[in-house]
Every structure is written in structure tokens, then in C-alpha cells.
Amino acid sequence: MNNELLLSELQSDEKSLLDLFLLIEEFVFETSDTSIQNIEDIIESCQSAIVDVENPLEQVEILINELFVEQMFIDKQKAFWPVVSFHIETSVDYRVVAPTLKAVILQYIVESCGFETDIVYVPDHTMLRVSCDEHYAIIFEPVTGESIDWHQLDDRMDDIEGDPSDIELLPIENTALISEHLTALKNSLIKETGFNQALKCVDLLIGLRPEDPFERRDRGFLLHQLDCFKVAYDDYQYFVEQCPKDPAAQLLKMQLEKITVVDNTLH
Prior knowledge:
The protein is an alpha+beta fold. The protein has helices at 3-10, 17-29, 37-50, 56-70, 88-94, 99-112, 150-157, 174-191, 195-208, 213-225, 229-242, 247-257, and strands at residues 117-122, 125-131, 137-140, 147-148. It is built from twelve helices and four strands; from the N terminus they run ααααααββββαααααα. Helix 1 (3-10) packs across helix 9 (195-208). The model is unreliable at 263-267 (pLDDT under 50).
């Protein structure tokens, strides 16, 4: 799948988030054998765990216990998530799943068990909200599995500007989650020197946010690493012009002033 076709898919609402993350994996890593059979097996176990339970709240509590204890999805926050944690099948097998991807996988599992589930931002984390019924919901952190009560939610929402009574906990838009996922994957690939694959992530991010100077800066860096400095120069220059007060832009400007980009003409 080429960039334009994938970008069109990423900006449509026709596929589930998990399907879109699978498409991203296939595009970035050039694979065509991605599978979610291990996720389907987990769904079966979760459905079996709640089949004889009638109370929705109790069902959700059992589901969370099944996922994080019985299925061993419990993890701790990491300063760096390795590239392998962005491969859907492998990360689930090893239970080391990058946070945004994990939120999307857990949403898919819980929705498959019959519960309305959305991904929300609660300072300072992306979390899952599962509606038990029209009156009650459980909000939990996808990495650790820890849930928060209403007092903790109120405390966290107090940090957001504006009248707390007017603040509504809205689902994160798909494009924002896709961008968050691509950015984290890009950073992990750069750290593990997967520059060609990181460049694919940046190209998609620029397709989603064409005017973002920081993505242009990152593309310039990656092109520079891949010995395409003439093309990188234009991205560096764009970043310097758009963010003149950024310390990185000031340093780049000094470096660019010392460099002359020459067009090589072959005769």
C-alpha cells in the first residue's frame, strides 16, 4: 500500500483502530503476514470468564482481572519502549506492548466482550473508559491496569484550565491516537537506528499534519542520516523559518549558514 492510499484509510472511519494499526505495521515494516489470532484467543478466555456473571459492573471487574492478572498484561511504565513492542502479534505474545497500541488492543478486546469502551485522556495518561451501564463506568490505565475512582479523576481534571464543571471527558479522536502511535514508533526506530522505517512514520505524520515544523525537522534529520542532505536541507530550513526561537532551530541556523548546497549537474 502506498502513502496516499494508506493516508486515505487512516483518515476514514470505515476500519477499526486495530485494523488501522495493522495497516501501519504492514506499511512500516513491509510485512503481509500480521495476525491477531492471539488476540482472538484472549477474547475467548475473557468471554468465558464472564459468561456466568450477570452484573455488568462485576463483569467488567472480572474482565480487567482476567486481562491483567490471568493473561499477565500487567506491566509498568517505561522510559523507552522497544520497536518490538509495536509489532502487534509479537508484542502480545511477549506481553510487552507500547502504551497507545495496548490501549487500542484492550479496547478491541473489551468491546468484543460486549462493552462500550473508549480511549480518553486523563492528565497525564491515555486511559480506557468502560461503560458498565448508563450510570457507571470504570476508567483504568492500559499499561498497569490500575483504575481510578471519581475523587482521583476530579483531582486530575482540576489541572485542566477552565471551569471543572464544564469539562467533559471526551474520547480521543482516531487521528490523534494514530499520530501518537506513529510518533512513539518513530522515536523508538530512531533510537534503534531504523532510519528507513522511521522515515516512513515521518512521511505519514507529515501527511496527517503537513505544516508541522517539528516533523519536517525530524524528516530532515532522517534524510541527513540516509545521506540525502540536499533534500534534508530544505526541511531544516523550513523548521528554522517556522520556529526561529527554538534552541534547536538557532543551532541549526548556524550550521546551515556554514553550508552551501550545490546542484550537481551530470554531463
